Amino acid sequence: MKIVDIKTYPLCAMAKRPTYYSQDWIDRRMSLLVEILTDEGISGWGEGFCSGQHPKILQAMVEHAFRERLIGKNPFDNDVIYETLYNTTRAYGQGGVATIAISAIDVALWDIKGKALGLPIYQLLGGTYRKQVTPYASGPTRAPGEVYPQKAVEQALSYVEKGFRGIKFKTGFGVKEDVALIHAVREAVGPEIRLMVDANCAYDVAKAKRILLDAQGDDLYWFEEPISPEHRSGYAELKNLTKTYLAAGECEYSKIHYKDWLEARALDVLQPDLCVMGGFTEGKKVLALAQAYMVQVVPHMWGTGVGLAAGLQFLANIPPMPLALFPDEPMMEYDLSDHPFRDDLIGWAVRYEDGVIKIPDGPGLGVQVDRSVVERLLIRD
Ligand code: CA
Q1: Active site residue 300
Q2: If you measure from the C-alpha of residue 14 to the centroid of ligand 1, how many angstroms do you get, rounded to a whole number?
Q3: Which ranges of the chain does DSSP label H, i.e. alpha helix?
Q4: Does the global pTM surpass 0.70?
Q5: What is the pLDDT of residues 80-117, one digit of tens each?
Q6: How far does residue 303's CA lie from ligand 1's centre (Å)?
């Protein structure tokens, strides 16, 4: 089997109304989809995650840095392809845009492999530990006019009503406001719900410490990205300050860099994003590292339906750390923010029902990309 063409689709859709989190306003959702075509008529899909960045930046990497190196290659040589592409990006910093673009390509290669063999990707990764996952409600971004913590309490109660047993809120709006939110939500949902917060790097170590200590009585399960990932030693300072776990990893790339986090023992929860950090090929190696260091992995999942489907295949193969008769299973991040094309892009194939999400078991990613949605959202200029 040989790769004969690579198609790139930068997508964009405007949000119904602008929202914000601790770092920026969000008035649109964007993504780069990659379709790799083979001489056997099988094609695979991948996604490069765009967190507010224009997808044409990733498109340029795929088209101008990687296309020529892919034509004629066998998709089953994914390991060789990954290492070769990664090696060519040294001058780009071997992270960021370069690795996100490789991720999109790698996910598409695994989709091809699965389709060619008639097997879900998790089978090619070595099997699934679970048929379904328990999602946690990953809170929406904020809209102007909403009053906090009242709005958060309202949202938390509605998630509990829908059957969620874990909830994560966007924070990073000031120490006092964040602590008030944690306290109000804990009081409203009771002691049984896993409560998490994500500051998206809004703080320094001193302020993050204050939040951890002031919220000590509220049984916060994890504090995600309290400070920027560039400041790894700051994470090590915050870890074990309280019983709250420290989580990060969505802005990290490749086994080389995850190894540094693990060696520094700076995190309790590692959050690699398959469509950012290098795809399945590299994800499998990061999983092996995390297992060796006994650090739990809960992937970051915030893209379109293609990224969601890829994340579910990855989740299937994540071993509980450690394995046991009644293990602490990895949760699934379930993005509840507005996304105009996350679900219709894959025909609503990933559904939350009765507190769980079933892992698609069809060939490859197990979902079909709706080309009419791609056509409708394509950035053409
Ligand atoms: Ca996050």
Answers
A1: yes
A2: 21
A3: 55-60, 67-70, 78-88, 96-117, 121-125, 150-161, 175-189, 205-214, 232-238, 254-263, 274-277, 279-292, 305-316, 371-377
A4: yes
A5: 999 999 999 999 899 999 999 999 999 999 999 999 99
A6: 12
